[in-house]
Design a protein that fits this description.
With about 130 residues, this protein is mostly helical. It contains six helices and no strands. Helices cover about 80% and strands about 0% of the residues. Helix 2 runs antiparallel to helix 3. The longest helix is centred in the middle third of the chain and has 24 residues. The chain starts with a helix and ends with a helix. The mean pLDDT is about 90.
Length: about 130
């Protein structure tokens, strides 16, 4: 019970954080000449992911693959940012801090993701209905 409640809190917080990416998207679209188009596109993806994570709060077990994607994409993004942080000295602190935040998000989601339900448990209502009707 505590695990599901914890997951819902994490999904809500991460969903809100990722959804806030709409602000840099709007800024990038309103002044594309002075923005990094790659960052604007990436923030658009994070915004969409944030909305779907917020929708997953209602029933996390039905959204296991979405939660796993959010976790593993956070790890991938952290890996790229970490490598860039070591290559671009002027951006090192920002990239490494951002990487750490993404790793924390990924770990929290992986640790709290609901366990896969056994097939027998999923098929039990169907079997009961068949017994009654047939």
């Amino acid at each position: 019970m505590w695990r599901e409640r914890g997951l819902k809190v994490v999904l809500m917080l991460v969903g809100l954080l990722f959804s806030a990416a709409i602000y840099p998207v709007i800024g990038g679209l309103s002044d594309p000449a002075h923005s990094d188009t790659g960052d604007t596109m990436m923030m658009g993806l994070y915004f969409a992911l944030g909305i779907f994570l917020l929708m997953a709060v209602r029933n996390p077990s039905a959204h296991r693959s979405l939660i796993a994607f959010a976790a593993w994409s956070s790890f991938a993004h952290a890996g790229v940012m970490s490598l860039l942080g070591f290559e671009i000295a002027t951006e090192r602190v920002g990239f490494l801090v951002g990487s750490a935040v993404l790793v924390v998000i990924g770990v929290a989601l992986i640790v709290l993701v609901p366990a896969k339900e056994p097939v027998e448990r999923l098929l039990a209502p169907i079997a009961q209905d068949t017994d009654r009707n047939g």
